[in-house]
Write a structure and sequence with these properties.
155 residues, alpha/beta, Glutaredoxin, 7-stranded mixed sheet, 4 helices, 7 strands
Length: 155
């Protein structure tokens, strides 16, 4: 078999397309999650984050220690949920969808983080999205105020 110049260029171009350029490599966002070790929905949410490309570490936390951690880090008591994540200086409270976390990291608002209060059915880790109830993802401001970051209508 004779290797033509055209074939050599095609092979070289194919190889070059698969090699990332310096500074272009995408690293997976790393999130650290504090959760009750007995909570199945927390584990389901973590699995969804992993499937979406996040690197996830977890830490066991119980009852009042977990609640105190939330309050000390600016998460208002009226919007708490079952687990709390920390990512790039932000706190993620409850079943926040991965797309909203990525948007937060992209936009970088001056805020504490995001929260999905309670445990709405159909939010990530809480049952079938096709049957979800309506819920909001809130942006938590440093003064404790909140505003709707994303609204999810009932399916």
């Amino acid at each position: 078999m004779t290797l033509t110049r055209r074939a050599l260029l095609a092979i070289t171009a194919s190889f070059a397309a698969t090699v990332p350029l310096p500074g272009m490599a995408q690293t997976a966002p790393a999130i650290h999650v504090l959760k009750d070790p007995n909570c199945g929905c927390c584990t389901a949410w973590i699995d969804i984050l992993k499937e979406d490309g996040f690197t996830v570490t977890t830490e066991r936390s119980f009852g009042t220690l977990l609640i105190r951690h939330k309050l000390e880090n600016g998460i208002p008591q009226n919007i708490t949920s079952c687990h709390t994540g920390e990512i790039e200086g932000y706190f993620i409270e409850g079943h926040v969808p991965p797309a909203d976390i990525r948007r937060l990291l992209s936009e970088r608002p001056d805020a504490v983080g995001l929260a999905v209060p309670g445990m709405p059915y159909g939010s990530p880790g809480m049952g079938l999205e096709e049957s979800r109830e309506a819920y909001d993802v809130f942006l938590i401001r440093h003064d404790g105020s909140t505003e709707v970051f994303t609204r999810y209508e009932a399916a």
